Automatic annotation (TrEMBL):
Protein's UniProt name: DNA-binding transcriptional regulator, MocR family, contains an aminotransferase domain
InterPro entries xref list: Aminotransferase_I/II_large, HTH_trans_reg/aminotransferase, PyrdxlP-dep_Trfase, PyrdxlP-dep_Trfase_major, PyrdxlP-dep_Trfase_small, Tscrpt_reg_HTH_GntR, WH-like_DNA-bd_sf, WH_DNA-bd_sf
Positions of the HTH gntR-type domain: 12-80
CDD domains: AAT_like, WHTH_GntR
Native organism taxonomy: Bacteria, Bacillati, Bacillota, Clostridia, Eubacteriales
Domain of life: Bacteria
Pfam families (alphabetical): Aminotran_1_2, GntR
Length: 468
């Protein structure tokens, strides 16, 4: 009975705290599959709560598939598909599907813009111009910071020449940027704060560094300042990893006011903000103003990471990092030790693409195309699934993060498997949580790889499965 003990806190209802505690026991195999749970009367007496608290906790466990009630016998634990097995199952889905099969499926899992919008002819002409201009030099290793011409264009186009070129380090995408920053700054048992839920790739990096990870729930305008302060008062934090616009997976964007408060806390408590500027180009809401953490930073507290891969083409694999000068050398050395240099030809081509104004035109095209899909998906979700799910409208980006209502008996793992059987690929919410059980009621769908007809068919399929 002792393992079922819960030290209740005031912020959350007791039945939810009890439900979450028992779920963790089941996930960690401290409660075995098929094991009988304590009787309602015995557990309520042991915890000092009324019977209704235990009844409601057991009901929620049953709804989420973590328990089975047998009439006249009691309630029994039911182990869900194990996290590692399910992650393998999810990843195997994409290994087994050929490119052609994936195209024929309704792919709601995309995190980057569609290759169908990539300006092949324009980029081909740019590549030829670069080769004609630079010859074999275009294929040689660049200086350690990256091609000077690209750093110059980044500074001019995105930072109004407010930086020095030495402030900008070219990397092979955001994932490498996160990796080299973590290698440079984070040691074993250093404390790191992340958003909950968050990008799985960043979680993997911080786990690999064997850091102590603190999570803060995302609100509609970023993490809770109160929760952040609670952690900062009790722990010495090294850095806070955040996706400032259209956070992956929730789609939430930080308000400027909240960014300023976080930056003030960074100065007060001596930690750094690792900003992953994700898809901020795709703002559809005219009332949303773009200002990154970095643009508001007055105390050199922000390490800024930006990738061109998500918005342009994943195969390009180019991004950049801006760091406080005190970390410049160690982060640059970490990059050199990782891969020496990012593709010289692609750096030069991207520089020319930006310089000629083609980049700006391409982004305008993407905004027009994806805003149409965004509005359709938003409206069709409300129309078809409004009684079954809850979601926030992010105002941009490429995804919607959806929560199943309590009345829905299925969870995201079962929904993923059933959808996959009908050639619809969604991303289950467990992929974005450190503790997978917390993501069991969520899933993410995106419109980057789908036409409006496919969006309609895919949502209709999800509706059918949820109604079965």
């Amino acid at each position: 009975m002792e393992k079922f003990y819960v030290e209740f806190i005031e912020e959350n209802p007791k039945y939810i705290q009890l439900q979450m505690h028992i779920k963790k026991l089941i996930d960690k195999e401290e409660v075995e599959d098929g094991e009988k749970l304590p009787t309602i009367r015995a557990l309520s007496k042991f915890l000092g709560v009324n019977n209704v608290t235990v009844v409601n906790a057991y009901k929620r466990l049953e709804i989420e598939g973590y328990a089975v009630q047998k009439m006249g016998s009691g309630t029994y634990a039911k182990r869900k598909l194990l996290g590692r097995c399910f992650r393998k199952e999810y990843n195997e889905t994409f290994k087994k599907l050929s490119i052609e099969e994936l195209r024929q499926s309704i792919d709601f899992s995309g995190e980057s813009t569609s290759s169908s919008y990539f300006p092949v002819q324009d980029f081909k002409e740019i590549l030829n111009e670069v080769l004609d201009r630079d010859g074999a030099e275009a294929l040689m290793y660049q200086e350690s910071l990256g091609y000077k011409g690209l750093r110059k264009e980044i500074n001019k186009e995105f930072w109004s020449n407010e930086l020095t070129l030495d402030d900008i380090l070219i990397v092979s995408g955001a994932q490498q940027g996160i990796d080299i920053v973590a290698k440079s700054l984070i040691n074993v048992n250093d404390n790191v704060i992340i958003e909950r839920p968050t990008y799985n790739g960043a979680m993997m990096v911080f786990n690999w560094r064997r850091s102590n990870i603190f999570e803060i729930d995302m609100e509609e305008d970023g993490v809770s300042i109160e929760k952040l302060q609670e952690i900062l008062k009790k722990n010495r934090i090294k850095c806070f990893y955040t996706m400032s616009y259209f956070q992956n997976p929730t789609g939430a964007s930080y308000t400027i006011e909240k960014k300023k408060k976080i930056l003030a806390l960074a100065e007060k408590y001596d930690f750094y903000v690792l900003e992953d500027d994700y898809l901020s180009e795709l703002i559809f809401d005219k009332n949303m103003e773009y200002k990154s953490f970095k643009s508001l930073d007055e105390n050199n507290r922000v390490i800024y990471i930006k990738s061109f891969s998500k918005i342009f083409l994943p195969g390009i694999r180019i991004g950049y990092v801006i760091t406080p000068r005190r970390f410049r050398e160690i982060i640059q050395n970490s990059k050199i030790h990782t891969d020496i240099s990012t593709s010289s030809l692609m750096q030069r081509a991207l520089a020319m693409y930006i310089e000629t104004g083609k980049w700006k035109s391409h982004i305008e095209l993407l905004i027009n195309e994806y805003k149409t899909r965004y509005c359709f998906m938003e409206n069709y979700l409300r129309e078809q699934l409004g009684d079954k799910v809850d979601f926030m409208s992010p105002g941009g980006g490429l995804n919607f993060f959806i929560k199943l209502k309590d009345s829905v008996k299925k969870d995201c793992k079962e929904l993923f498997l059933r959808c996959r059987d009908r050639n619809v690929i969604i991303t289950p919410g467990v992929m974005f949580f450190k503790n997978e059980s917390e993501g069991i009621r969520y899933f993410r769908i995106g419109y980057s790889q789908t036409s409006i007809d496919k969006i309609k068919d895919g949502i209709d399929t999800i509706k059918d499965i949820l109604e079965e």
